[in-house]
Amino acid sequence: MNPSFIVHDELGQVRGPRSPLYEALETATGAQEDPLTVIISTQAPTDADLLSILIDDAKAGHDPHTVLSLHTAPPELDPFAEATIRLANPAYDGFLNRREVLAMAEAARRMPARQAEYENLILNRRTEASNPFISPMVWKACDGPVASLEGIPVYGGLDLSAVSDLTALVLIGWRGGKWHVQPTFWLPIEGLSERATADRVPYDLWHAQGHLQATPGKTVSYEFVAHHLRQLFQRYNIQKLAFDRWNFRHLRPWLLQAGFTEHMVTDRFVEFGQGVASMSPALRDLEQVLLEGHLVHGGHPVLSMCVSHAVVVLDDAGNRKLSKKKSSARIDGAIALAMAIGVAPLQAKPIDIEALIA
To answer: Which residue from 35, 151, 230, 333 could staple onto 306, CB 3.0 to 4.6 Å apart?
Structure first.
């Protein structure tokens, strides 16, 4: 019963890098001498989704047996221009209803809330149909090498999870005219593969590659996190570390046991609210440094996953915050990054020590 011909229709609907059905079908073709697989689909919303991974691999030319036919509108073009629409729709002058497509474009122009969905379904762009915080193109533009944080003032954000969820720590330091980002993520080692399947992200692979730390047992031990923080404070000149007060009361006793003094905890650890009052200015500053190219993240896969799924919600006054409920995946790293930026002295940019020495 091994298949020799498979058609995957709308594979872009698969969220995350894995699909048990896709993998089962593809591995079953191994018994055939000359199997053929065809994928027909609109693009997936993010780079971390299965179809996007397959497309990028085909673009790189790793497998000469893979043929890619991709009709998409480049992101720099006007999304509402008819010439742009034609690039993504080879059937535009054939069976596709030109009048209906132009009506969809006009509706998206009038109602910005519909633009992301229009760009994904009509222009075949990788666009999250929700309200993403930052575009993938802007984030990719900041994928530069990350320098050491030693010898410079360092600021951080700590998003403490519930006992078994993703815990994120992001440190940043100003060097060479850019904020250099160093993230750390923790998940419990027990049940890591099951959690990867449930969240549809490769936690187990990231752990093997060193991008994700696994804590012993079934929970993220705050004792483990506290000792890690103590080592970082001894290594780096950490000026301020922002935290969400919700779970900090459980961490504080472990910080004292790990060697922090009461004065150090009070002086260096900064309470940072998760509502619009604190988050809106932090997101504005983070957006600014990203757009100006003043941040480098090194393409860290866990942080990139968090940022790609980060969705903003607005209050009546237009103030913003990141919403875990609205996001389709974990965004703890994006929250920690925003908190780090929020306590860093962006208005008066830090002194570049290396530049002074030079």
So the answer is: 333
CB atoms near residue 13 (< 10 Å): 14
Among 22, 45, 60, residue at a domain's last position: 60
- Taking only the tens place, the pLDDT of each residue in 26-48 is 999 988 889 999 999 999 988 88
Query: Global pTM?
Result: 0.71
Tokens of 340: 């780090």
> What pairs with residue 182 in β-bridges?
171
Give me the phi and psi of 319, to 5 degrees please.
-75, 150
Helical ranges in the chain per DSSP H: 20-28, 50-60, 82-88, 98-110, 115-121, 136-141, 192-199, 203-209, 222-235, 245-258, 262-268, 276-291, 301-308, 332-343, 353-357
Radius of gyration of the chain from Cα atoms? 23
Q: How many structural domains comprise the chain?
A: 2
Q: Which domain holds residue 20?
A: 5-60
Same domain (yes/no): 47, 183:
no
Tokens at 333, concatenated:
């790293």
